[in-house]
């Protein structure tokens, strides 16, 4: 019988598969070596894990596979420093450490019955993907689902293998956009906030969920306010601010709020009540 999960200790996991999403984003699909722990593992959409590379350190990444699909846990890693560079050198069969689940998930129960607008940019699609797929797997529990996903170019779009399925589904509305024209591109061209204004989702009984680069978030929030979305109906996630993941190191705080304890999911209303450090 396995011991319960200890948030202080990494659990050994094996990489089953890697996917090169873009030139600097790689996806890892992993399973715990302890099959009993894998079977017992529970998490909510939006919760994160710390991936560790032996001898280098650890970094925070959202679990971007949904809890409805537990063949493996999926993490997508953008290469930005020493730890992520080490992770990018790993291949199927290699070992990683995983501390998870950490943080609070999206308020799934509160979202049931609501229309949902996802607005993702670049690697920011990873935190949205887990909730997006969870909703697709429980489609009857939610109202109209719309996804706006954008990147600088087609080559910068993560999860490209999944995009044809998302755009072809008739029970959701998917809009893809890139910043400027590209050969062979058949979807929207324009910055995400501008395309969102063109889509003009209605705020009534609707929740907007956004994640992406800070400058995209800034102007997406402005667009949502122009569309008259109340602050309480806008959600975002700040897992990239998390460090230790358990509220001890104090490096993730925004004023009095510790992202790894109170977040990483916040409403815009909650963020506005905190110091402007984003």
UniProtKB/TrEMBL annotation:
<protein>
    <submittedName>
        <fullName>Hydrogenase</fullName>
    </submittedName>
</protein>
<dbReference type="InterPro" id="IPR001433">
    <property type="entry name" value="OxRdtase_FAD/NAD-bd"/>
</dbReference>
<keyword id="KW-0411">Iron-sulfur</keyword>
<dbReference type="InterPro" id="IPR019480">
    <property type="entry name" value="Dihydroorotate_DH_Fe-S-bd"/>
</dbReference>
<dbReference type="InterPro" id="IPR050353">
    <property type="entry name" value="PyrK_electron_transfer"/>
</dbReference>
<dbReference type="GO" id="GO:0051537">
    <property type="term" value="F:2 iron, 2 sulfur cluster binding"/>
</dbReference>
<feature type="domain" description="FAD-binding FR-type">
    <location>
        <begin position="8"/>
        <end position="108"/>
    </location>
</feature>
<feature type="binding site">
    <location>
        <position position="260"/>
    </location>
    <ligand>
        <name>[2Fe-2S] cluster</name>
    </ligand>
</feature>
<dbReference type="Pfam" id="PF00175">
    <property type="entry name" value="NAD_binding_1"/>
</dbReference>
<feature type="binding site">
    <location>
        <position position="244"/>
    </location>
    <ligand>
        <name>[2Fe-2S] cluster</name>
    </ligand>
</feature>
<dbReference type="GO" id="GO:0050660">
    <property type="term" value="F:flavin adenine dinucleotide binding"/>
</dbReference>
<dbReference type="InterPro" id="IPR012165">
    <property type="entry name" value="Cyt_c3_hydrogenase_gsu"/>
</dbReference>
<dbReference type="InterPro" id="IPR017927">
    <property type="entry name" value="FAD-bd_FR_type"/>
</dbReference>
<feature type="binding site">
    <location>
        <position position="249"/>
    </location>
    <ligand>
        <name>[2Fe-2S] cluster</name>
    </ligand>
</feature>
<feature type="binding site">
    <location>
        <position position="252"/>
    </location>
    <ligand>
        <name>[2Fe-2S] cluster</name>
    </ligand>
</feature>
<dbReference type="GO" id="GO:0006221">
    <property type="term" value="P:pyrimidine nucleotide biosynthetic process"/>
</dbReference>
<dbReference type="InterPro" id="IPR039261">
    <property type="entry name" value="FNR_nucleotide-bd"/>
</dbReference>
<dbReference type="GO" id="GO:0046872">
    <property type="term" value="F:metal ion binding"/>
</dbReference>
<dbReference type="GO" id="GO:0016491">
    <property type="term" value="F:oxidoreductase activity"/>
</dbReference>
<dbReference type="InterPro" id="IPR017938">
    <property type="entry name" value="Riboflavin_synthase-like_b-brl"/>
</dbReference>
<keyword id="KW-0479">Metal-binding</keyword>
<dbReference type="Pfam" id="PF10418">
    <property type="entry name" value="DHODB_Fe-S_bind"/>
</dbReference>
<keyword id="KW-0001">2Fe-2S</keyword>
<keyword id="KW-0408">Iron</keyword>
């Amino acid at each position: 019988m396995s011991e319960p999960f200890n948030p202080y200790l990494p659990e050994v996991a094996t990489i089953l598969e890697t996917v090169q999403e873009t030139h600097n984003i790689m996806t890892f699909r992993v399973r715990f070596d302890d099959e009993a722990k894998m079977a017992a593992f529970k998490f909510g959409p939006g919760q994160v894990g710390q991936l560790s590379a032996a001898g280098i350190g650890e970094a925070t990444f959202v679990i971007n596979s949904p809890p409805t699909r537990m063949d493996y846990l999926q993490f997508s890693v953008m290469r930005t420093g020493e730890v992520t560079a080490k992770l990018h050198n790993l291949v199927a069969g290699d070992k990683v450490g995983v501390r998870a689940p950490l943080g609070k998930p999206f308020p799934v129960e509160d979202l049931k019955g609501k229309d949902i607008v996802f607005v993702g940019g670049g690697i920011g699609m990873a935190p949205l993907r887990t909730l997006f797929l969870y909703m697709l797997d429980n489609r009857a529990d939610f109202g109209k689902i719309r996804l706006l996903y954008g990147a600088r170019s087609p080559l910068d779009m993560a999860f490209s293998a999944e995009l044809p399925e998302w755009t072809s589904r008739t029970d959701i509305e998917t809009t893809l956009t890139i910043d400027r024209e590209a050969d062979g591109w058949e979807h929207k061209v324009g910055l995400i906030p501008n395309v969102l204004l063109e889509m003009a989702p209605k705020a009534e009984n609707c929740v907007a969920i956004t994640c992406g680069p800070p400058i995209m978030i800034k102007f997406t929030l402005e667009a949502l306010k122009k569309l008259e979305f109340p602050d309480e109906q806008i959600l975002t996630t700040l897992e990239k601010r998390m460090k230790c993941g358990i509220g001890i190191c104090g490096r993730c705080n925004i004023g009095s709020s510790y992202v790894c304890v109170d977040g990483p999911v916040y409403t815009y209303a909650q963020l506005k009540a905190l110091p402007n450090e984003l």
